[in-house]
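Ticket #4471: structure export looks truncated?
Reporter: QA, pipeline team
Priority: medium

Steps to reproduce: submit the single chain below to the structure queue and open the exported record.
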Amino acid sequence: MSIPYKSALIIGAGSGISASLARALHSAGINVALAARDTEKLKPLAEATNALAVPVDASDPASVLALFTEVDREMGEPDIVVYNASARVRGSVVELDPAAVQAAFATTAFGGFLAGQQAAKRMLPKRNGAILFTGATASIKGFPNSGAFAMGKFALRGLAQSMARELGPQGIHVAHFIIDGAVRSERRPESAEHPDSTLDPDAIAETYLSVLRQPRSAWSQEIELRPWVEKF
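Actual output as written to the record:
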């Protein structure tokens, strides 16, 4: 089944999952826009995928509105919006800087709300579109010294569930992806002794595309992805 959408906006673009997803969407004939704080680092990916690159502070309402306004103007309202932005602050709960935690939460969770709100405003009149949120192991399990990240990812998951129940009956597919494991990268190469022990970002991207292809009679609201050796 072909993907029933024509354009996509990836917020929090960079290397890894978002880069693989941008290439996969481009190969599927989808026009792509990429958004990040630093668009300079997006140049090679933007050139490879013929994508529009737009700067954004995902935690700022005015910046997110400006992003969507520019994408609307340059390539039309996006049919797919992927929220991939997040921020980590590590440390003991008694030592964390409250301002740093607040900023991280604003990027990981509040930014997802801002992006989802702007996407929904554009998709509701057409009763068509897809909003995808990238979660993590921290979406379902809080770990020591990772409270700030867990706060943001738990909140993002709750947002996705609420939006799915609100917007699904109106024709908008909302899905949340729990990436439960380490994602393979140049800094985290595959181990020869333990093959397929990390998540391949290209394989993750293919799962995103498979969800976009789902007929509306059988939509997924949440997908968990983990390597075969990862514990539940």
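Status: closed, not a bug. The export was complete when the record was re-opened. Leaving a note from the reviewer for reference: The two ends are 31 Å apart (CA to CA).
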